[in-house]
Amino acid sequence: MTALPSMLRTPAEAPHLLGRCRELVRPALVEAVGRMHPWVGEMAAYSFGWCEVGGAPTGASGGKGVRQALAVLAAEAAGAPGRAGVPAAVAVELVHTFSLLHDDIMDGDAARRRRPTVWKAYGTGPAVLAGDALFALAVETLATAPGGPQAVRVLSVALGDLVRGQADDLLFATRPWTGPQRVRLEEYRAMAEHKTGALLGGAAALGALLGGAAPSVIDAFDRAGRHLGIAFQVVDDVLGIWGDPTVTGKAVYGDLRERKKTFPVLAALDSGAPASRRLAALLDADGDPAEAAALIETLGGRTEALTEARAHIAAVEAALADATLQARPVEELRSLLEYLVRRDL
Questions:
Q1: Which of 32, 81, 96, 148 yields a CA-CA distance of 20 to 30 A from 345?
Q2: What tens digit of pLDDT does each residue of 123-153 get?
Q3: Alpha-carbon distance 13 to 189, whole Å?
Q4: What is the number of other CB atoms lying within 10 angstroms of the CB of residue 5?
Q5: pTM attached to this predicted model
């Protein structure tokens, strides 16, 4: 597969950066979760990978902590110590986890990170309650931080956009593959910006805000995160069809089997080539996913998806270049961004 262009010479730094930021944020995150109702707090701890059902400690992975890293690095890029971004990192991590709990219920997903999802482990009602509690805790965390009212407004905008994107994504499933009611690429971009990009942009913007950055810098970080979200989602779509299951954790052709309206599929259907009609018929009939994947590639869907990701990576670079920032944290941010969008491409 054609690789995405390198934004930085040292993407191998990214796992170290993620680990450093997690270590900085974790004490405050643990303290926040410890203020929850014990049963609800157990479900939150389970979702972070800290314990098993019943509360026994575990070493399960709780995720990479991408959003919290963006908050910490944005604070540092604004000239503040990383700890200034910790309340933002805690808040966005709580909101992200809240969104995953509810997403798993909406999508009927039974597993996440190779463990039963919270709703499967504890029940649907308790999982909804835990998600609600995580959101409330996120608002409280920001409200009591310096610049709290403005920070809560930034988080509220991001969350509103996240809900909008999730709603559009759910509605896409009910729309036809072709015809006037089909999902268009510009609609997909808006969905991806909202569903994935809003919280990435919000994390970076909040870190910059708590780091004392000027409004123009805060806006630049928000723009960068939103473009990153689109690039990340498009790359995820490519991996959802052609990715190595041992790396992605997804089944071969998984997104095609689930009939998801992903960017490569939509781009292939929009090509106007005669083979696009065969692809639409296959998708309508739940046909052979291997044949569908081959048609998508022939119709240019895979190539166009990578081109789209490149365009949004360039937009991330432009947004960062527009702001006056500390050099080393910006280089670290670029390392993290490349790591996120390249993965096994």
A1: 96
A2: 999 999 999 999 999 999 999 998 899 999 9
A3: 29
A4: 11
A5: 0.91
Residue 228 in tokens = 């990153």
- How would you write the chain as a 3-class SS string? CCCCCCCCCCCCHHHHHHHHHHHHHHHHHHHHHCCCCHHHHHHHHHHHCCECCCCCECCCCCCCCHHHHHHHHHHHHCCCCHHHHHHHHHHHHHHHHHHHHHHHHHHCCCEECCEECHHHHHCHHHHHHHHHHHHHHHHHHHHCCCCHHHHHHHHHHHHHHHHHHHHHHHHHCCCCCCCCCCCCHHHHHHHHHHHHHHHHHHHHHHHHHHCCCCHHHHHHHHHHHHHHHHHHHHHHHHHHHHCCHHHHCCCCCHHHHCCCCCHHHHHHHCCCCCHHHHHHHHHHCCCCHHHHHHHHHHCCHHHHHHHHHHHHHHHHHHHHHCCCCCHHHHHHHHHHHHHHHHCCC
Query: Residues 241, 256: contact at Cβ < 8 Å?
Result: yes
